[in-house]
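Posted in: Protein Modeling Q&A

I'm a second-year student putting together a small comparison for a lab meeting, and my supervisor asked me to include a predicted structure for Tripartite-type tricarboxylate transporter receptor subunit TctC. I've never done this before, so apologies if this is the wrong subforum. The sequence is pasted below exactly as I got it from our records. If anyone can share the structure token output, I'd also love a short note on what stands out.
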Amino acid sequence: MNLLVKNIARIIFVGTAFISATTAMAESTWPEGEPINYVVPYPPGGTTDILGRNIAKLLGDSLGANIIVENKAGATGTIGSGYVARAKPDGYTMLGTSIGPQSIVPHFFHKLPYDPDKGFEPVILVGTIPHVLVVNANSPYKTLAQLIAAGKADPKALSYASGGAGTVLHMQGELLKLKTGISAIHIPYKGDTPAIQGVMGGQVTFMFAPIAAAFPQIQAGRLRALAVTSSERLGNLKDIPTMKEVGVSDFVVEQWQGIYVPAGTPKNIVMHLNRAINDILKTPKMIDLADTLKITLAGGTPEDLGNRQRNDFEQWGKLIAAAKIHLNN
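Accepted answer (user: helix_wrangler)
Welcome! Here is the predicted structure, written out as tokens:
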């Protein structure tokens, strides 16, 4: 019996040593020669793309690797997300994405090319972005109260733009309708920039826009800001009240940016990436970029991103069910 116990112990020891050695070898040789593919599921030029390209450059320098940013846009981010979910889980494919494909869009489809929870390993929460409710600078609505009153008085008076059906910008319009009882027609555009142009051109009444995209137009006098979706007033828009201040409670909405790898990617590689990107987020270059894009940098553990994704999935799922939202509305 003692001999059997000793043999089992020896087998366990050898197996453990082999696993430890394999893990150490994987981390010491990764990445080795092969370029890393950083997928952005949106068109070039947007916040996710700009963040991705800057992080990829700094991460490549940190890892001593060539990181190629590839835009695989379409279907509200689901095409690029599906591509990464199907990729080999070896640390050579990454996904730089946002709240939409991971926590909102899955509620609208019975079948997606990926599972937002089981198809990926979270790496890191990059940061969060508040939004601002804007109208055309020549709009008759100078306050949110006036906008709401118009929406209640005439079901056909208002329309709102978004960067696409199923995006967080779309959801905020629906949340406003649900909380205030107004009517407003949703007009989806192919991206945030065309949506903002629609508001500036007077084709659409209002929209919730990312601060970075809307701020230059607010400064230039082309858009009028009525409220921000942050919990407190923003430093560069101190004169603009929060949604709570203008009477719409429980309306703190932030778009987040996160990085994932395919499910099954070795834990040591996930943590290697997490540590490297945490360091990158503290660099002067990323801090300056975050200020330009009006992003609050986050960082933290992979679990932080996973928890944020699941909490928002639950929150927006409740709204979608309560408001009976469909992507063709």
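A couple of things worth pointing out for your meeting: The chain has two domains: 36-129+254-323, 130-228. Confidence is low (pLDDT under 50) at residues 11-26.
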